[in-house]
Amino acid sequence: MVTIWRFDSIIGAYFFALCKTNQPDWMRYKGSAKAGNITLTGGFSVELYWNFQMMLNFRVKVVTGDGLTTLPNKTLGGTTATHLNSETGDIALSMSSVVPFRASQLTFLQPTYHGIITCFFMQPTANSIRNIVTAPFHTYVWFSLIGTWLFLITVVKISAFLKSHTNPTTREKTTETKQIDPNVNNDGGGGEFESHILDFGWTLYASDYNNWVKDEFTTEERRKEIPGSQETLLEKNKWQYYDDLDSDTRFASEIGMWAFTANCQKSWHIIPDSLPMRMMFLIGILCGVVCFVGYSGAITSTLTVSTLPVKQFSDLMKFKFLFTVHEWSEPFQIFLQLMIDTQSLSQKVLKITTVEEISHLLNANKPMAFLTYSDLFYPTALALNYTEIFICSHISKVQVSPVLYKSGMFLKKGSEYTEILNHKIIIMKERGFNHRYIRTYETNNIFPCGGASSSTADPIEFTDVLTAFLVACSGLLVSVTLLGIEILYSKLDKVFRVKKH
């Protein structure tokens, strides 16, 4: 009975709607407020209001108002609040944010829009030096690859150890001692450069050979029997021990270097003899192919994709941004003050005017970030004669949080129209009208920056490949330095040998 009584009280009566002059996307009208001949022409709130009028069959009379302000005595002020409290207005078409302070003095209808607080800012200067070594793969992929190779190397080492200690033939062959003629040159005629390269591989199995040499020179008598010094024998005949090893043992002794070459898609000079070792060899080669192809493609993508210094809201604090809000937006001022208190920011609540919304981001001496809703920021930019292309290319945005903040129309506190209007809003939501109005509104007021794909690919700039060039140059310098040290060491070693003899 109560609902029907209130429904009857609206039918045929005048319903006074309050509209603001500075919200063309929420509501549009024509006529003069002074002459009293204002006619609503469109907008998100007006579309909802027209649905109310259609369902309840009331007549419309429009009264102009302004935004909600907080007076020094902690009450809401402004012509909109005055009209509602004096009953010269029934409903405010403005979509205001629902905050506890406002809700305590006004009656909000069911929320018809949800907004996300967004930060708009200019990206700081990006450092050209960036990580391209580990960036191609995620952390868990790196752990998986490294774990796979460590497991494979461990299995090969264990297999070689078990084979050398369980197979008598192999064990006798690897521990065999021989008479060495120090006058015979055993370098195979490969030249000095080949000797330097093989010296590196020798370090992988030198411990076993040193034990063999130690056994050969146990006594003074044995040292006298063999002409030449122990150092000379080590230098001239160190490869004889290595040549006596079988392929499996030699492969296991060089497994670390083989793992690197397999990932670089380079061939190897040893193929294991036994079937288990060959299977592990094949598995390693296949794993290397996968790693090489995946890493090559990923690092190419990493070089061609530009990186942004600020990717999320926490990055703004890391770069010491100052946060600003609009001078008329009390909910954002309250939010910024709460953020200053919780995050211990060294700033005050900085307020800017509508004219300064874009310019204070572009021309600030210190990096600034503006807190607002996307559907409010972009229309303001267009009204200030900025183009969509300019805004998308110069201004970036990040979400402060994924929390949706509700907005809706409001009435005076305890209005008799609350229940019937809420019921009609629920009906419009169930039938999809509210969702359609939201999509139309956001399409017209939010720029889809980066949404459309370009018909031509952007060329790679010098800054995109600077890191790759620096890595290549650094590797070249290190290689040349090591080669110079190795050549110098070889020459000094020869000089010392001549002096010693």
TrEMBL record:
Keywords: Cell membrane, Glycoprotein, Membrane, Receptor, Transmembrane, Transmembrane helix
Gene3D superfamilies documented for this protein: 1.10.287.70
InterPro entries on file: Insect_Ionotropic_Sensory_Rcpt
Membrane topology: Multi-pass membrane protein
Keyword Endoplasmic reticulum among record annotations: no
SUPFAM superfamilies (UniProt xref): Periplasmic binding protein-like II
Subcellular location as annotated: Cell membrane
A Gene Ontology cellular-component term: plasma membrane
Superkingdom field: Eukaryota
UniProt key word DNA damage: no
Protein name (record): Ionotropic glutamate receptor C-terminal domain-containing protein
Native species: Folsomia candida
